[in-house]
Design the sequence.
């Protein structure tokens, strides 16, 4: 699942995984968990993430290889946030693991900034909210588990702009790579998440 920051990769990848019995593998979530756990990878990653920069390829390629080797990926997975550079895509291809499709969610930039600056995430269960589009019932608390909602450090406006620039420079060429391979499905990511999901599933037929 590809797309600019805030395009809805996490939202759509979760829906696709839960409805098709696949495992959701989000590299952003993996890095945030490593940071929370206080590992060396997590500490290194945080420095890059908080500045809106990409974590170095050699760290990412190793992390993803380890994650995909686990049993729960045996029946299929939805990759969210990887690959993000042509080098990552080439390393992934060298593993010989087939991809069924590459979905790119396309959303206008003004909408992306609005989505990211209003995003809040549950510290306990990871459920995502948006202050205007999908607010929690009680301000600051998760509807599902009553956990505390927080704003990601990289969702501050200055960092959002940097993430967009990095996307255009390093990740947009990956789309071209998959277009040439005949795997790319470009889907509009605007509208209600269920509406977007219908387009995603249609693109896979
Ligand atoms: P990551 O966590 O992957 O962040 P990202 O790509 O910037 O994407 P986001 O999580 O911000 O957005 P999303 O597209 O998943 O949208 P979401 O569904 O959350 O990566 C973070 C950092 O980790 C990177 O900057 C980098 O430093 C590092 N990293 C990760 N992978 C890496 C790699 N492979 N290589 C190197 N570094 C790596 O939705 C966003 C908001 O919009 C939410 O509030 C949601 O509720 C709302 N929303 C979603 N869909 C809709 C809709 N249809 N309508 C209205 N609102 C919507």
Sequence:
């Amino acid at each position: 699942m590809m797309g600019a920051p805030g395009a809805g990769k996490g939202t759509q990848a979760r829906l696709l995984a839960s409805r098709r019995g696949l495992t959701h593998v989000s590299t952003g979530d993996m890095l945030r968990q490593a940071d929370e756990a206080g590992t060396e990878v997590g500490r290194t990653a945080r420095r890059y993430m908080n500045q809106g920069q990409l974590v170095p390829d050699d760290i990412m390629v190793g992390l993803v290889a380890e994650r995909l080797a686990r049993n729960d990926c045996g029946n299929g997975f939805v990759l969210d946030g990887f690959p993000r550079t042509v080098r990552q895509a080439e390393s992934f291809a060298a593993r010989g693991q087939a991809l069924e499709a590459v979905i790119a969610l396309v959303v206008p930039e003004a909408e992306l900034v609005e989505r990211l600056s209003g995003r809040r995430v549950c510290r306990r269960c990871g459920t995502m909210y948006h202050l205007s589009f999908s607010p929690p019932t009680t301000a600051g608390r998760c509807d599902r588990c009553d956990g505390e909602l927080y704003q990601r450090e990289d969702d501050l406006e200055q960092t959002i702009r940097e993430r967009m620039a990095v996307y255009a420079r390093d990740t947009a060429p990956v789309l071209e790579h998959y277009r040439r391979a005949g795997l790319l499905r470009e889907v509009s990511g605007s509208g209600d998440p269920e509406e977007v999901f219908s387009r995603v599933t249609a693109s896979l037929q």
